[in-house]
Amino acid sequence: MNKFFETLTSDNAVLTMIDHQVGLLVSCRDQDPHLMTENIKGLCSLARTVGLPTITTASLSDGPNGPIMPEIIDILGDKVIEREGEINAWKNAQFKQAVEATGRKKIIMAGIVTDVCLMFPAISAVEEGYDVYAVVDASGTWNKVVADAAIHRMTQAGVKVATWASVLAELMEDWRSEHGMALGGLLAEHTSYRWVYNNFLHASQK
């Protein structure tokens, strides 16, 4: 099947969280910071729920970029690939090898900032035959103009631009699936879908 039409499953994808570091998060102004945090938590939680392999990396965490945001550590654990200087995570041997070790060709990718930490490795991975889903609402950058420019460039290079809720729905596929209700609960926890979900739960208890 053509990779552009093959859907995400819990067996063919890996999640990479790139440089969600507290020093970089301070400058993200293209979306509401509280909403962005919920999107990041939702993306990490869905990966844990369906059992996706996950890879977290940081750049110069002892410097001004700071450590990985604690919300990610709480969900995915404290294993972080520390890069010594590569801006493009794909050019870090340990990070790239970690992706290759999963044996999966679909990469769900988010990064701070969108136009550097997400865009560069996304384009590089596509060049090497990977099918990359750039989750832009679990990423962030300086302003909307910068985010839009990054989205255009990634799209031109063949990166699939996505949101965390669309990734969740694609992985769920069917409400009757093994993780259907759990994933619905994540949407309820991290988005305004909570009203729909809570109404469904209420109605089902009658």
TrEMBL record:
Species name: Shewanella surugensis
Gene3D superfamilies noted in UniProt: Isochorismatase-like (3.40.50.850)
Cross-referenced InterPro entries: Hydrolase_YcaC-like, Isochorismatase-like_dom, Isochorismatase-like_sf
Domain of life: Bacteria
Protein name (database record): Isochorismatase family protein
Domain Isochorismatase-like: 14-165
A Pfam family hit: Isochorismatase
